[in-house]
Design a protein that fits this description.
By secondary structure, this protein is of the alpha/beta class. It is 32% helix and 25% strand. It contains 14 helices and 24 strands. It binds uridine-diphosphate-N-acetylglucosamine.
Length: 416
């Protein structure tokens, strides 16, 4: 298994380009299932999660053509609307094929994703929504079996704000008979990007980005071309990495417009942040100030940036209180950060992080995608060598991580 070796203590400086958003690309690629015509996507990041999803689509009969960041999918010949456990278990987002499959083929068999390191993460809201649209859904032998010759538009209300739940139901509603209204919808920019792609394919959607989305079902969708939005979490991660090293970086092919909550906190920590049209520049102070935060659905502070800010606070001046409200078990990075010398106390869903003058390199273990990113950030500022084990988590969500860090002057090496 690959490891990452980081020699800490270098100030990050320079310019790198941000990749397309993993969490936008995943639902958008699934949207290709809704039409028999080819759909082309650009700015698709080269990540393990994207590879997993493409394999899943391929084994259903989707023709996949991939050339760099361009992917063309042709779901004209789908013969097997089944998502098997072997592929779904490695990536929860595979559940995003459920809505499109039932909507277009009248039936779907998708493995239950099961638990994951950061919490239970059930899919009951996805199922409840499809049932409200007329589908018969049975959960048997670890699979969700859904059937409905044609879904019917309905008024849907999710018990909590769910990103992939909103996306799954929005895709299903595109081919339903009549109007669907999703209330308490997720407002994440990735939901808006998916809606834009669906509209380009002929869907009739209004309200995406707000908490009520209206979809007028149509008989069929057609081919289109869509460019995936920039990855706001990758952007935020590199901003944090630059901030902890007292660096100055410019990130291109991205935008500050999806990152208000994160940029606000970086400015509270003492960074100067300059927004350009398709770029962000950050200049960090010699020592950061601690910043408290609470995660919540967009536009509030994203749970996917919580771990990176824990690393940042570990070396800041003062004490930060971090409250995680989305996932019940998302502090696993805390014990690994402690191995590097961080002073962190966890009480339920709250972490108290007392900034220390410096961290020391050690061997640590990546436990999930964003937890791994926090260890990279800590390793960059720690004295001496940090070895991060199990970096396959990082490969799921960060394109060319070592090359991008190296371009900013970091000393990183992948150990095979
Ligand atoms: C998405 C993101 C993930 C991010 C998360 C929260 C993708 C591929 N992944 O995950 O990176 O961390 O949003 O911003 O976009 N819940 C239920 N029942 C359901 C659905 C969700 O109880 O049917 C709960 C979850 O356990 C969690 C909360 O709702 O506590 C929010 O989860 P959700 O927004 O659905 O996360 P994902 O869409 O899986």
């Amino acid at each position: 298994m690959d490891k990452l070796l980081i020699e800490g203590g270098t100030r990050l400086a320079g310019e790198i380009a941000i990749s397309g958003a993993k969490n936008a690309a995943l639902p958008i690629l699934c949207a290709a299932l809704l039409t028999k015509e080819p759909v082309t996507f650009t700015n698709v990041p080269r990540l393990n999660d994207i590879g997993t999803l493409l394999r899943l689509l391929e084994q259903m009969g989707v023709k996949v053509e991939r050339d760099g960041d361009r992917v063309t999918l042709d779901a004209g010949g789908v013969a097997n609307p089944v998502a098997p456990y072997e592929l779904v278990k490695t990536m929860r987002a595979s559940i995003l094929v459920l809505g499109p499959l039932v909507a277009r083929f009248g039936s779907a068999k998708v493995s239950l994703p099961g638990g994951c390191a950061i919490g239970a993460r059930p899919v009951d809201q996805h199922i409840k929504g499809l049932q409200a649209m007329g589908a018969t859904v049975k959960v048997e032998h670890g699979y969700v079996n859904a059937e409905c010759p044609r879904l019917k538009g309905a008024r849907l209300f999710t018990d909590m704000v769910t990103v992939t739940g909103t996306e799954n139901l929005m895709m299903a509603a595109c081919l339903a008979d009549g109007e669907t209204v999703i209330e308490n919808a997720a407002r994440e920019p990735e939901v808006v990007d998916l809606a834009n792609c669906l509209v380009a394919m002929g869907a009739r959607i209004s309200g995406a980005g707000g908490d009520v989305i209206r979809i007028q079902g149509v008989k069929e969708l057609h081919g289109a071309t869509h460019r995936v939005m920039p990855d706001r979490i990758e952007t935020g991660t590199y901003l944090c990495a630059a901030a902890v090293t007292g660096g100055e970086v410019r990130l291109t092919n991205t935008s500050s417009s999806y990152l208000d909550a994160v940029i606000d906190k970086l400015m509270d920590a003492g960074c100067e942040v300059f927004s350009e049209r398709d770029a962000i520049r950050l200049k960090a102070p010699a020592r950061l100030q601690a910043v408290s935060l609470r995660t919540a659905p967009y536009p509030a502070f994203p749970t996917d940036m919580q771990a990176q800010f824990m690393a940042l606070n570990a070396v800041a001046e003062g004490t930060a209180v971090i409250r995680e409200t989305i996932f019940e078990n998302r502090f696993m990075h805390a014990v690994e950060l402690q191995r590097l010398g961080a002073d962190i106390r966890i009480d339920g869903n709250t972490a108290f992080v007392k900034g220390v003058a410096g961290l020391q390199g050690a061997t640590v273990m990546a436990t999930d995608l964003r937890a791994s990113a926090s260890l990279v950030i800590a390793g960059l500022v720690a004295e001496g060598s940090t070895i991060i084990e199990r970096i396959y988590h990082l490969d799921r969500g960060y394109e060319n991580l070592e090359a991008k860090l190296a371009a900013l002057g970091a000393r990183v090496e992948r150990l095979k």
